[in-house]
């Protein structure tokens, strides 16, 4: 595929994500270009700009030059004018794409190299990527799905069906993710419409995305699940970082996607279930109303969930004002002992029992939710209900963090964290201004009387920075309180305790700050947290359902939006006139509808009241008179 076609697909996709952009490019403002740039920030680095012809640069790329990094655009222009001269390119641009051979060799002359090009993956890899769960395997099948024309893929595609265990299965693929355009999402699923009453299948599976030209370059994820008609799909919403697919990474010499193609393989083990209740324990199964009191809803945050979280705390459990985290909820019998619970958790989560320790989350007075107390081995004989009552003030559900310890010299050690211990457990986040993202990097044990500066070499090592790279270190106290930490103070004087979150970034030069500012990027941690706090989910409902058969929907808005800002975005969603939209809120005490008057100064956070953890709700209606005239 010509590189300019890739560019066209990327631009069209970006514009489709922002329907409010003017159709006439001449009417675009700097804000419009910035909107498009933010949508395409993970796609633009994947384009081979220097493999685009001069004519295409002028005709196709130049009109959108404002979405490119100024240094990159300067390099493109140098390449354009210096046709026969050697020039120094300072921008990081991927190498030229390679082309697959147009014909295959004869069957009897296939060498190892040709086999690699055809794309054959060894099914024995299943034993490497899927742990032995100790159950009898009823059937094992694998299926490979070839993905071509990556740059032209739709938002969701589905593989042909394949059979395993006497049932048909398929792979669901989201090239640009379900809720996050930074990652690809892949799921394994069955067809619930064909399932007879009571159907289920206990399945351990692995999904691999790999390079058809080099089957050794692959990435895999594995899980197991009791598939039912009500829960026919399971997979990975954040299967892999989209940006890493097109460049060699993780000890691979070649990228996972080359020549606009990749393969996805599903390894499927059907597990025998002689008791009929295998993995019932770890699913959010339907429980009869009169039995619900016997169960304890239990949520487990793993290190992987923390690593992917783009928000406050370690995960968002139930604050519907922000995107909820993909934290699994398990229904656990309150009478089950902690020892049995941990044994079953080990099998389900795939970690060695000796390497895990659970921490109980607590709700702090400042409305943050942090791990506070580890569950010690002397709790093994206690029931889950007893532990919950003893450790949680309002024991309606149990939230746990799964700490995973890496062996040191073949031994696993969990530090003591009681009042007499010098150690505390803290969580580390890293802010990257280039990608405008937070990364849940790790957890660390620190000593109370160490200075904040003492962890700088450790943080640098975690990100492969030189040991004495200047860093800016902050504490995430609560959503609107992000405070810089003083390197010369001890952690105790900094009032750090178990479960606190420390966030860091590189200290930037004035030139780097200017570069981020010019590109419209946030360059420091407090401002980025502020942007997270300002983004909220608002649920819209038609005020009169019987009169106006309009849909309910959700939009991500900003707390600082004015009435007109909100109206414009709702109008785009409904394809209507923004000046004829009237919004109404509801008093949570009296349930009385209150019409919001249009002003040009009042911001959204001043217009509406939302109870803690509940979603913001607005009712809308279309009126016959222009609301500007109505005000007059």
UniProtKB/TrEMBL annotation:
Give the signal peptide, or none: none
Q: Which PROSITE patterns match?
A: MATH
The UniProt keyword set, sorted, is:
Coiled coil, Hydrolase, Protease, Ubl conjugation pathway
Q: Which InterPro entries match?
A: MATH/TRAF_dom, MCC, TRAF-like, USP7_ICP0-binding_dom
Superkingdom field = Eukaryota
Q: Which GO terms describe its molecular function?
A: peptidase activity
Indicate the segments forming the MATH domain, all copies: 140-268
Q: Which GO terms describe its biological process?
A: proteolysis
Which PANTHER family does the record match to this protein?
A: MATH DOMAIN-CONTAINING PROTEIN, TRAF-LIKE SUPERFAMILY PROTEIN
Q: What is this protein called?
A: ICP0-binding domain of ubiquitin-specific protease 7-domain-containing protein
What is the originating organism of this protein?
Answer: Gigaspora rosea
């Amino acid at each position: 595929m010509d590189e300019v076609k890739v560019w066209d697909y990327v631009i069209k996709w970006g514009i489709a994500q922002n329907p409010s952009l003017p159709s006439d490019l001449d009417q675009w403002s700097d804000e419009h270009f910035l909107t498009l740039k933010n949508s395409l920030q993970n796609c633009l680095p994947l384009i081979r700009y220097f493999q685009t012809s001069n004519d295409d640069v002028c005709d196709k790329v130049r009109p959108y030059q404002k979405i490119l990094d100024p240094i990159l655009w300067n390099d493109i222009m140098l390449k354009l004018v210096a046709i026969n001269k050697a020039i120094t390119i300072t921008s990081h641009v991927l190498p030229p794409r390679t082309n697959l051979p147009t014909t295959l060799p004869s069957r009897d002359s296939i060498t190892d190299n040709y086999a690699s090009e055809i794309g054959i993956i060894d099914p024995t890899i299943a034993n490497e990527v899927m742990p032995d769960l100790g159950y009898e395997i009823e059937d094992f099948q694998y299926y490979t799905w070839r993905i071509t024309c990556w740059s032209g893929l739709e938002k969701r595609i589905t593989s042909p069906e394949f059979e395993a265990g006497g049932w048909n299965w398929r792979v669901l693929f989201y090239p640009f993710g379900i809720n996050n355009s930074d990652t690809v999402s892949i799921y394994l699923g069955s067809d619930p419409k064909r399932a007879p009453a009571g159907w289920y299948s206990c399945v351990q599976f692995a999904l691999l995305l790999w390079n058809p030209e080099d089957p050794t370059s692959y990435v895999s994820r594995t899980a197991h699940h009791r598939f039912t008609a009500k829960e026919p799909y399971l997979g990975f919403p954040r299967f892999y970082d989209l940006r890493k697919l097109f460049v060699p990474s993780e000890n691979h010499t070649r990228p996972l996607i080359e020549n606009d193609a990749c393969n996805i393989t599903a390894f499927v083990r059907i597990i025998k279930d002689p008791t009929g209740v295998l993995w019932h324990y770890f699913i959010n199964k339907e429980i009869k109303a009169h039995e619900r009191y016997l169960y304890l809803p239990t949520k487990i945050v793993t290190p992987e969930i923390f690593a992917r979280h783009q928000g406050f705390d370690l995960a968002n459990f139930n604050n519907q004002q922000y995107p909820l985290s993909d934290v699994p909820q398990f229904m656990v019998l309150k009478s089950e002992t902690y020892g049995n619970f941990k044994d079953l958790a080990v099998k389900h989560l795939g970690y060695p029992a000796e390497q895990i320790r659970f921490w109980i989350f607590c709700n702090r007075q400042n409305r943050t939710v942090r791990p506070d107390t580890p569950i010690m081995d002397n709790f093994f004989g206690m029931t889950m209900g007893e532990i919950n009552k003893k450790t949680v003030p309002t024991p309606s559900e149990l939230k746990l963090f799964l700490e995973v310890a890496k062996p040191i010299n073949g031994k696993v050690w969990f530090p003591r964290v009681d009042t007499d211990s010098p150690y505390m457990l803290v969580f580390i986040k890293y802010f990257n201004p280039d990608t405008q993202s937070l990364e849940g990097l790790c957890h660390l044990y620190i000593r109370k009387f160490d200075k904040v500066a003492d962890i700088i070499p450790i943080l640098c090592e975690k990100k492969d920075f030189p040991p004495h790279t200047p860093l800016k270190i902050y504490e995430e106290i609560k959503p609107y309180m992000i405070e810089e930490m003083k390197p010369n103070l001890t952690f105790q004087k900094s009032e750090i305790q178990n479960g606190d979150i420390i966030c860091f970034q590189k200290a930037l030069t004035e030139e780097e700050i200017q570069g981020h500012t010019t590109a419209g990027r946030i360059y420091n941690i407090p401002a980025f947290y502020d942007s997270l706090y300002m983004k909220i989910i608002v649920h819209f409902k038609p005020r009169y359902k019987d009169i106006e058969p309009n849909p309910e929907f959700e939009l991500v808005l900003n707390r600082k939006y004015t009435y007109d800002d909100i109206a414009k975005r709702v109008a785009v969603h409904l394809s209507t006139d923004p000046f004829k939209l009237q919004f109404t809120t509801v008093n949570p005490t009296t349930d009385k509808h209150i019409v919001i008057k249009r002003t040009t100064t009042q911001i959204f956070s001043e217009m509406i009241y939302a109870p803690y953890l509940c979603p913001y709700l607005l009712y809308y209606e279309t009126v016959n008179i222009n609301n500007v005239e109505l005000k007059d």
